[in-house]
Each structure stands twice: as structure tokens, then as C-alpha cells.
Amino acid sequence: MSKVFFSDDGSTAVEAALKLAYEFARRSGRSRKPKFLSLAGAYHGDTIGAVALGHVDLFHRRFSGLLFKTDEVMAPYCYRCPFNRARPEREDAREYRKCAWECVGEVERKLVSQKKRGAPYSGFVFEPLMQGAAGMIPQPAGWLPQVTDIARSHGALLIADEVMTGFGRTGTLQFQISNLKSQILFACHQEGVQPDFLCVAKGMTGGYLPMAATLTTQEIFDAFLGEHEDFKTFFHGHSYTANQLGAAASLASLELLQSAASARARHQLQQTMRLELRRLWSLPHVGDIRQVGLIAGVELVRDWRTREPFDLPERAGIRVCEAMARRGVLTRPIGNVIVLMPPYCTTQQQLRRMVEALHVSIAEVTQGKRPSRTFHF
Questions:
Q1: Domains plus CATH for the chain?
Q2: Phi and psi of 187, rounded to 5°?
Q3: Pick from 10, 24, 262: which is nearest to 133 by CA?
Q4: Could you please report the per-residue DSSP string of 347-371?
Q5: Residue 246 and residue 8 in contact, taking contact as beta carbons nearer than 8 Å
Q6: 338 beta partners
Q7: Of 5, 189, 336, 351, which has the fewest CB atoms closer than 10 Å, so is most exposed?
């Protein structure tokens, strides 16, 4: 991916990828009316093109009159998958699921059906390894390479939204610690997938200044080359694109990120997080704990044996996060799912206290148990 278009936030990084893919499909003769496929529950930003790629009705319904149509296909939500025949266990649902990869078959059927209509999808848009706003939905190992191979075989460009998952957020593999040059910083590459577009933002500057980028290939770049009178320019830009302060902050952040000390610290933090989260299985209203690297989602349920969810008006997730805030931990829920994404500068002790605050807050809200002590950060 040798070409980069800079912008200033995740939505605009996705917007640029969408426009580039749309125009490339037209100019290369792949499609006169390009169409796009994304996952159920998808959220890719708040600009109009990014909103059109999303399928969270609560976020997007009010703007439906402004949007172009995109299609959705089921996400691999193992915990609530209709094809998963396994009984609930006290473990991440990906580990005990019983299925025949029906979710992969659903993606293939969608692509085949669209191709038979004579209008194959021009792009397949996805968050790799973990879908964020959908409810922290993790993808089982092997799902991503299967569906992207299928999408490519049907002519779709791969658009990876790594705004949340990029720059080491989905984990540091063991072998990387001893060999810094082999660090894998993007979720796609952990599954051996190389997209046609890679959208990144937050992690570039560590969240300190607005900065984003859309990476793509020489082939796609070349479709926008020509004589002046051809007007092949990519007519898209922003006033603060590639601003100097954002670029300086990004260089400093990336230098820290790629250091051996940072890689070791992230790896240790990931392991500590995994161990600490296991304590939550003792709570009867914890239905699923799903972790990918330094991203975790804890799904609250009325009964873990049946996976029965709390009704949204009960505000179970919100009340747990409010209880955590009283203990000095700021996070947010996505419905009944509590999100935990510690900064890379978090210490081992701080992470333990975060999970402890989550533990006592869930107990307080769901069982009416008052904690024996209050944490001060």
C-alpha cells in the first residue's frame, strides 16, 4: 500500500476510501453503478458516505433520506448466532461454539446473488477482528481470510476500517517481542489479509490531535492520473489535511509505539487483562466476555444460562458505567455491553483496579450488592 491520502478523522478516512473505490470501479470498467456490502451492525462514521455504509438503525434512521443504499450481511456474532448449537458456558463463545461456518456461507450467498443480478459488489467494507459500535463483536479466528477471499473472487475491493483496531490495539503476538521488525500493528495482517484500502485515524497521534489516513495501492492511484484536460483528479480534500502539528504528533506517537519497550508493555498489559477479566465469570449476570488484544466487551444478561438480555429501558449497561465512574473509571456501554479499552500507558496496577471497579459495579447494579470499599484513583 504505497499511496496515502491524509485527512483528519476516522469518518473522513472511510469517506475517502469509499469515494476512491466508487470512482475506481467506474473508471476500470468493473461497474457503472458501484454497490457496497458491509456487516450487520456496522458503524463506519458520521459523514454521509460512512453513514450509508452503517447498519445501526438507532444512529442512522433519522438521516435515511440523505443516504444511498448499501447492503448488509450477517456478522459472526458467536454468542448470539442462530447457527451456534452450543449451550452457554463460562467462556468466550468463540471458544465453545458449535457450527459449520454458516456465517461464511451467508457472505458467499450474498455475493453470488448480487453477481447473478449482473451488478457485483464493488467493495466489501469491514472492521477486522472486532466490530466496535455493533456491540464489541469479535470475529472467530479464520473468519476474516475466508470471507475476504470470497469477496475478492467476486470482484469486490476490500476496505478495512482500522480506525479502532489499528496500531496494535488488537494485540501483540508473542514472536513479535523478540523480533521488533516483525511487529504486526494492524488487525488485518494478524489474519494474513491485505486490503485494497486501509482506513486509520485515532492511533496515529495517540488521540492527541486530529489526524487520519487512507492507504491504497498503486493500481488504484493510477486510475486518477491523466492529462489536465482529462480531469481525473480525485476531487476531495479538507482544509486541515496532513496538517503539520498532527503530522508531528503522529511521528512522535509512532516512534513510541514501535519501540521494543512499548511492544513488551502492550503484550504484558494484554495478558494481565485476560487474567483479570476471568474473575468476572463468577458474576451470574455476565453472559459473555470477549477480548481481542486490548479491546474487551462484557455482555450483561438477565440469565447466563439462557442468554436472555436485559431490556434496554432497564439501562443495565448505563447504570454499570455510572457506578464505575463513581469509582474513578470512565467508559461507556453499547447497550448491555460494557467496553474496556485501556490506554497503552496504563500500568498493571491501574488495569487491575479498572477490572475490579467493573466487577463491583456489575454486582452492585445487577444484584443490589454494595461494595465493601470504594476505590480512589
A1: 3-258 (3.40.640.10), 261-367 (3.90.1150.10)
A2: -60, -40
A3: 10
A4: -HHHHHHHHHHHHHHHHHHHH-PPP
A5: yes
A6: 298, 333
A7: 189
Instruction: Note down pLDDT in tens along the chain; length 377 residues.
Output: 999 999 999 999 999 999 999 999 999 999 999 999 999 999 999 999 999 999 988 888 889 899 999 999 999 999 999 999 999 999 999 999 999 999 999 999 999 999 999 999 999 999 999 999 999 999 999 999 999 999 999 999 999 999 999 999 999 665 455 555 567 899 999 999 999 999 999 999 998 999 999 999 999 999 999 999 999 999 998 888 889 999 999 999 999 999 989 999 999 999 999 999 999 999 999 999 999 999 999 999 999 999 999 999 999 999 999 999 999 999 999 999 999 999 999 999 999 999 999 999 999 999 876 654 544 44
Grid cell listed for 70: 448499501
Alpha helices in the chain (DSSP H): 10-27, 48-52, 57-60, 93-96, 102-116, 143-153, 174-178, 187-190, 218-222, 244-257, 260-277, 316-326, 348-367
Integer Cα distance of 79 and 320 in angstroms: 21
Q: How many helices (H) and strands (E) does the chain have?
A: 13, 14
Which residue do the cell numbers 472511510 mark? 14
| Beta strand pairing call for 123-126 and 137-138 | unpaired
Residues in the chain: 377
CA distance 242 to 248: 10
From first CA to last CA, the distance across the chain in angstroms is 43
Yes or no: say if 277 and 296 are a contact pair by the CB < 8 Å rule.
yes
Q: What are the percentages of helix, strand and coil residues in the chain, rounded to 5?
A: 40, 15, 40
